[in-house]
Design a protein that fits this description.
This protein is mainly α. The chain has helices at 4-26, 28-31, 34-58, 65-94, 98-111, 114-131, 138-163.
Length: 173
């Protein structure tokens, strides 16, 4: 792949899928553990930095925020689309019981905080939990894509601000 944005977007997406499959094999507690999200976030930042640096290097070592925003944002979009398709397949093809397993994982986490939130707080939590859908159907996938566009833009904007290197101004004599 010649385009670094596409290359690193695919890398991040595939690495995310490998992590997802590895944690799925370890069990639903690992699959739904919060640390998986942190690792995925760090890998996304890595991919954006690599694409941004490749773009800047191909432009003589200089690029503005606006110029770097495009390749970093593309990494976020591509990896996010791969992740969304992966999640959709996991919940609807590979293991249709994942929604129930996710609900059980949330419940187990909440039970660990029962002393903190109290009996009344736990009852309210349980009522809200029963009303919540844990599936990942087409509607949730579309919502996920909308959120990933917003999130990818925000992260790409921050990464681009850090990576930018404007050309020095030369005085004309």
């Amino acid at each position: 792949m010649e385009n670094p944005s596409i290359k690193y977007g695919v890398y991040v997406g595939v690495i995310g899928m490998i992590i997802g499959l590895a944690t799925y094999v370890l069990g639903t507690a690992a699959f739904f553990h919060w640390s998986k999200g942190i690792v995925g976030f760090l890998i996304l930042i890595w991919g954006m930095v690599m694409a941004g640096n490749a773009f800047r290097d191909s432009n003589g070592g200089y690029a503005s925020w606006k110029e770097i925003l495009k390749p970093t944002f593309i990494v976020g979009i591509i990896s996010g689309l791969i992740s969304t398709v992966f999640q959709f397949l996991m919940f609807n093809v590979v293991d249709t019981g994942l929604a129930d397993a996710q609900k059980d994982a949330v419940l187990a986490t909440a039970e660990g905080y029962a002393d903190v939130i109290g009996e009344e707080g736990m009852e309210t939590f349980m009522d809200n939990l029963d009303a919540q859908s844990f599936g990942f159907g087409p509607t949730e996938a579309i919502q996920s894509i909308g959120l990933l566009i917003i999130g990818a833009f925000i992260i790409a904007a921050i990464v681009s601000a850090i990576l930018k290197r404007n050309r020095p101004h030369q005085d004309v004599v």
